[in-house]
User: Which sequence fits this backbone?
């Protein structure tokens, strides 16, 4: 059974009664997002249903801009910027497009521009699949509501379901086998002073994909047993910190949660260690800032690049300690233009 | 209440009916030991009673040689090699000596020589307190049996209870509040081809003592909840690997267990990371040897220095990859002299 056998009935339910004929073009932007409480472990691999809920912050203007149009001939053309996308990624996109293809010989042309500093080793699959889902909605004129769009995006990449929204987003794990209750929703909160810094310390390709790393960890790490309970507590703490705008609490929770996620990988068998010597050096520099009394915290996804969390008043100190940092203002700021989505 | 209030009744029980008058001098050697399944977390801090059992390998000729004698005046003199021991360590030794001091104005002279490459950042408290316990037994002529000596050593430093023995040693956690069932015993097994390599990659002092790191992890790490069950399975696996002389199984179990221990620290709040950039580099080099099909595994204690586990036929490859490695043959070998204890 292929993943699409499981995904197709979900898509058919979402699109029941919606138009099936494409217009000339669809376009959309979706922001990248960084989880403050991580998604780590699936309960259903075909539907990308998570073991736990998660909570993220979208990156405003940083993300993916996608145009999708009928190719006018069989077979898909998948471009990343001006170039054909890597074969593996293109195949994943085509399998996803199979779910909404009007006819077997109908080809799509998909063109994605990532407004993300690629040197920061930044995963673009979340914003990419969110933008693709939104662009398809535009192309076909489905006019799906946000939960449905979030579910559609999730079928492409789990964390894409959070990139359908701006700001703070909580992805509720849900409990239904078909995942109809597993989607993102925007939290009613803004935090204009919030800043993130991407640290482009490692440019080489990841040795192990996060997809594989997640599965390996769930299957072999004896510490994974304690992960769901950790997430439950961290979610509660992160929600409370956002509600009360308690930055040290939000930062410490995000850092603790990211470290716990990496810890579950370190305990996998054989161990999975994404950290490089440069990761450790950056981590120590961040901890040194904290020892100086600065509220600077870090988070890390399944890769070697830490990201920093802080408030605007620490931006100069962060820039001094990390000259290569790309600083992002998720809720807008001097260097940010208005989010598109 | 001081720790000695809890320790004293235990010592009194152990020494009931034994001589109280010292002879001219006592002397003993005890090997250092490296845990293959780690001791990480105390259920009683004063008695050094562990949450779980653990399993170690003693390092043959590497360890501590201790002489203890009446000082002939009040106050203790504690020497490490030719020099006075650091004040903190000397105070810890004096508090321990209080437990067996014949009279308040009786001073001891303790002289310890560590036959351990100190550049490898090697903890000497295990062999040091084991040698001290054995030397005191010699000084007073107590003639305690091995379990009693192991308990006596444990009161100085938890893992010292394993350094009373050569070879593979299992420290049974026990369940009694007074710890009379918590001591080491030698496993009936030898493994002449077994080798360990100490990697002197970091010479600076540890920023956080393992004592403090252990407590911080137990108190704050959400993943510690899964540690006791992890140890239970690893102990079973290590015992079986030793019984069947299955080196890849022993190595993988030891590496997995050490990584899980560090993972519990990484998930502590705030995180506790002993790894340095050099640790990661050494780890990657060891994994690279494994990718070449070589059965080389690593273990790590609460510090930045990995140790390698392998069999004699891999010694040349290990030397080539780690020119600074200090290779140890726990059961004797070309470069090892007969263990003393």
Assistant:
């Amino acid at each position: 059974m292929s993943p699409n056998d499981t995904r197709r009935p979900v898509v058919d339910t979402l699109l029941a009664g919606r138009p099936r004929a494409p217009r000339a073009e669809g376009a959309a932007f979706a922001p990248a997002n960084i989880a403050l409480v991580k998604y780590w472990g699936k309960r259903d691999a075909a539907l990308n249903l998570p073991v736990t809920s998660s909570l993220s912050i979208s990156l405003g203007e940083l993300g993916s801009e996608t145009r999708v149009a009928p190719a006018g001939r069989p077979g898909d053309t998948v471009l990343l910027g001006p170039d054909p996308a890597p074969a593996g990624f293109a195949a994943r996109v085509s399998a996803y497009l199979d779910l909404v293809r009007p006819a077997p010989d109908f080809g799509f042309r998909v063109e994605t521009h990532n407004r993300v500093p690629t040197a920061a080793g930044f995963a673009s699959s979340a914003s990419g699949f969110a933008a693709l889902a939104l662009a398809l909605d535009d192309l076909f004129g489905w006019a799906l509501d946000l939960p449905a769009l979030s579910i559609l995006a999730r079928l492409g990449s789990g964390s894409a379901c959070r990139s359908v929204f701006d700001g703070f987003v909580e992805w509720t794990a849900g409990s239904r086998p078909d995942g109809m209750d597993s989607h993102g929703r925007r939290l009613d909160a803004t935090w204009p002073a919030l800043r993130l810094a991407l640290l482009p310390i490692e440019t080489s390709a990841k040795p192990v994909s996060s997809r594989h790393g997640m599965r390996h960890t769930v299957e072999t790490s004896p510490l994974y047993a304690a992960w769901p309970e950790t997430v439950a507590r961290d979610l509660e703490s992160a929600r409370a910190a956002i509600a009360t705008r308690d930055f040290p609490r939000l930062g410490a929770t995000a850092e603790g949660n990211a470290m716990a996620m990496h810890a579950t990988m370190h305990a996998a068998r054989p161990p999975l260690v994404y950290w490089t010597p440069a990761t450790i050096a950056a981590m120590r520099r961040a901890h040194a800032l904290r020892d100086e009394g600065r509220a600077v915290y870090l988070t890390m996804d399944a890769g070697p690049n830490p990201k920093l969390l802080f408030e605007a008043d620490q931006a100069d100190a962060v820039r001094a300690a990390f000259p290569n940092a790309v600083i992002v203002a998720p809720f807008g700021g001097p260097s940010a233009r208005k989010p598109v989505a």
User: Anything to note?
Assistant: Chain B has nine helices and 13 strands.
